[in-house]
């Protein structure tokens, strides 16, 4: 967790807050250390941008989750259009 916080330029407490808000759920090592994926770090970095801009943590987490859902929906729509065009 310390290394992830360092990479993001934030604190371990911020990462714990994101976990409590259920934005990211890191895996745990056998020793109990939190392990973050690149995707989770990218999500945490986006949340940090919003918080740095004055958005409360809970609201930032909701915004990031919605942005992620929108991105996924847009990808699915594009795939469906591509399939229809190939038919």
Automatic annotation (TrEMBL):
Any idea where the HTH merR-type domain is? 1-66
SMART domains, A to Z:
HTH_MERR
Question: Pfam family example for this protein?
Answer: MerR_1
Q: Which InterPro entries match?
A: DNA-bd_dom_put_sf, MerR-type_HTH_dom
Q: What is this protein called?
A: MerR family transcriptional regulator
């Amino acid at each position: 967790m310390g290394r992830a916080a360092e990479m993001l330029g934030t604190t371990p407490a911020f990462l714990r807050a994101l976990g409590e808000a259920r934005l990211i759920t890191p895996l745990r090592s056998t020793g109990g250390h939190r392990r973050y994926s690149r995707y989770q770090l990218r999500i945490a970095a986006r949340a940090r941008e919003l918080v740095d801009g004055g958005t409360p943590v809970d609201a930032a987490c909701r915004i990031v989750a919605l942005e992620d859902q929108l991105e996924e929906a847009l990808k699915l729509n594009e795939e469906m259009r591509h399939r229809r065009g190939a038919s």
